[in-house]
Amino acid sequence: MTGPLDTEKRALRAELRERRQQRSAAALEDAATGVHAQLDALVATHGVRSMSCFLSTPTEPGTREFIAAAVARGIRVLLPVTRADGLLDWAVAEEEGDTAEGLFGLPEPVGELLSPVAVNDVDLLVIPAAAVDRTGMRLGWGRGYFDKTIGSMEKCPPVYAVIFDSELVDSVPREVHDQPVSGVVTPTRTVLLPTR
Fold first, then answer.
1. pLDDT tens-digit profile of 11-28?
2. 40-46 CB contacts, 8 Å cutoff, 24+ apart
3. Per UniProt, where does substrate bind (predicted)?
4. I need a labelling partner for 175 at 20 to 30 A (CA). Which of 112, 121, 134, 149 fits?
5. What values do phi and psi take at 173, rounded to 5?
6. 0.85 surpassed by pTM
């Protein structure tokens, strides 16, 4: 059953997906370099020793270089693995870790799986998003995995969504189950938002 809010979300996601697909390889490479620098600074600011992140797709602001560098520096990085029940398992990132196509065709790590509660011990959550508004509301890609994860955590650490600069917007459609984020990381800046 779809309502007007669901239709609005779908339309906005389609528009954002189209914009991402139009970015050049050079622009995406620059974005990955910028995100790497911003995440390095964020990790240093928070004194992070353990965190979650995600394996970026080819059209997302790149996280893979950051993950490899963080692992090389001794930071424990958990990567999400989708499950059919709507929850996320986690795998510890490795410098030369293998990946495979996950449940929805997205890249996921291959290796020993940790349960959904493994993420409860991290100092920082870094998650994907389609857009985030200035109040901290995040528009995801419609499957609810990260909303469920954030909503179920007893003590949620800071949560930052990785987006392009143009995807920090004035407002996004919001439903009851949607979870806010602490801030955003873009290729040019890290912005703390007022919600958490």
1. 888 899 999 999 999 999
2. 40/66, 40/69, 41/190, 42/124, 42/160, 42/185, 42/190, 43/70, 43/75, 43/124, 46/123, 46/124, 46/158
3. 55, 60
4. 121
5. -60, 140
6. yes
Element at 125 (helix H, strand E): strand 124-128
- Its CATH architecture, for the domain 4-192, is 3-Layer(aba) Sandwich (3.40)
Confidence of residue 2 (pLDDT cuts 50, 70, 90): low
DSSP state of 114: B
**Which residues define the annotated binding site for substrate?**
55, 60
**Where along the chain do its domains lie?**
4-192
Alpha helices in 50-161 (DSSP H): 64-72, 145-152
Tell me the C-alpha to C-alpha distance, in Å, between residue 75 and each of 92, 98, 102, 120, 161: 10, 18, 24, 16, 19
And the tokens for 44?
């240093």
Q: What is the pLDDT of residues 46-96, one digit of tens each?
A: 999 999 999 999 999 999 999 999 999 999 999 999 998 989 999 999 977
| CB neighbourhood size of 11 (10 A) | 11
Q: Which residues pair with 160 in a beta bridge?
A: 126, 183
CB neighbour list of residue 119: distance below 8 Å, 6 or more residues apart: 52, 78, 88, 90, 125, 149, 153
Kindly state the greatest CA–CA separation across the chain: 47
Q: In 3D, which of 152, 140, 147, 138 has the Cα closest to residue 177?
A: 147
Binding residue positions: 9-13, 55, 60
